[in-house]
Amino acid sequence: MKRGQNPGRDYRGVLRELVDGDWRDASGAPLRIPIRAIEVRETLDGAEGELVRKLHGNGKICVVCDSTTEAILGARVTSNIGGDCGTLILRNPKSTVDTAERLRGQTRHADALVAVGSGTVSDLVKYASFLAGKSYSVFPTSPMNAYTTGTASLTDTGIKRSLPAHNARGVFVDLQILAGCPQRLINSALSDVVCRTTAQVDWLLSRAFHGTPYSDVPYQLLAYDEESLFANAHRLRERDLDVMASLVRTCALNGLGSAVVGTTHPGSMAEHMVSHYLDMFAGDAHPGTLHGEQVGVATLSICRLQNRILRADAPPVIRFANLDEAFFARRFGRDNAAEYAACYAAKALDARAAEKWNTHLAAHWDDFTAPMRAVMLSAEEVAAPLTAAGAPMSPQDLGFDAAFYAEAIRGARFIRDRFTILDLADDSGLLDTTTL
Ligand SMILES: [Zn+2]
């Protein structure tokens, strides 16, 4: 579809059914989502006032943007909302709790907030409005999954945290605006959602070994667009609006999937832990790559590992490593050793459990792996859309040293208590980083 052919076209697809309360999961149960309105149109120019006033009433609205997004969309949104509506422009805002608290004070006169921007502006508005007990909506300027989640990713006293906050009332996507954003941001959004396959397999693995509550519903939602998005990723380079809409829906559904099950398990497992490890320990050598770009590369590594272990003819043989606090003190420093040791203890399979599992897996390997094999993609299938879009494919493409990336693969299992393929691989002596 060429731009300008049908500016009013509704690209919401399954999102419309969700917002209207018409969507049913595979068992026939309806799904409630915490967002009242989602619009995805070729352009929203001229519709902003009606969309925002319908959700937030006729009180005072403060549109929050940064200097870039003000020029791209913020000024237009403010002017089209009209009435009692002003703009607050943040200068080089940082994603910190301090900035959000300042923003709360700066917007105390407003009844509701409207974020115009990307992850930073959106999360600052999400958290500031949450603190103030006010509603907010968002007009994104790049695709990502943060707009439909209820958590804010902000740094607090130097540590990046995912803070409980609240959902937007409205998410309003103007595809022409998104089509103008740099290819790198589009590729980062794509790379951040290809992890559906690795996260789902890891979550199933965690359910199998530890009884972690699992839901298929987030994946029923993501199934609508995955195949066509992957097959047409090359058309993102020419900003084809159908494919841009497919990416936007997938990002939105990724965020909503976590919101409806109340955990980030559906879209954040080993591949995200590797990316977080890179951010936590790269220090000055961090090449400044984006979260999504790192997740895409890590997804390929984890996908290779999952395929190698879970598609093998014979099960791995688990051995309890019994890592103690001294191990974690050597690896992460004495100050943090207890925290890492507790994280490991929460999910480690001890000697008795290892023995029990080895017996079970030897007898039932095909049955055990069947649910995972049914949903996992090959690394080639995951690589195809990333290659087609021109996204980074390797640690070298990202600019990370190969030895440090290998360390991230080995160490990622220790930074979170989530059980993933990295735990099974390492405890079975199969974490050979040279081939990932
Ligand atoms: Zn992510």
SSE layout and pairing:
Elements: H1 14-20, E1 37-41, H2 48-56, E2 61-66, H3 67-81, E3 85-90, H4 97-106, E4 112-117, H5 119-132, E5 135-140, E6 151-156, E7 159-164, E8 170-174, H6 175-179, H7 183-193, H8 196-210, H9 217-222, H10 226-231, H11 241-261, H12 270-281, H13 291-310, H14 325-332, H15 337-345, H16 351-375, H17 379-389, H18 395-398, H19 402-411, H20 421-427
Parallel strand pairs: 1-8, 2-3, 2-4, 4-5, 5-8
Antiparallel strand pairs: 6-7
Helix pairs in contact: 4-5, 7-11, 7-13, 8-16, 12-13, 12-19, 13-17, 14-15
Residues 192, 272, 291, 295 line the site of zinc ion.
Explain what this protein looks like in three dimensions.
The structure is a single chain. The protein is of the alpha/beta class and 436 residues long. The protein folds into two domains: 180 residues, Rossmann fold (3-Layer(aba) Sandwich), CATH 3.40.50.1970; 187 residues, Dehydroquinate synthase-like, alpha domain. The protein is 52% helix and 11% strand. The protein contains 20 helices and eight strands. The strands form two sheets. It has a six-stranded parallel beta sheet with strand order 1-8-5-4-2-3, sandwiched between helices. Strands 6-7 form a two-stranded antiparallel ribbon. Strand 4, helix 5 and strand 5 form a beta-alpha-beta unit. Helix 12 packs across helix 13. The radius of gyration is 22 Å and the shape is globular. 46% of the residues are buried. It binds zinc ion (ZN). Zinc ion binds next to helix 13.
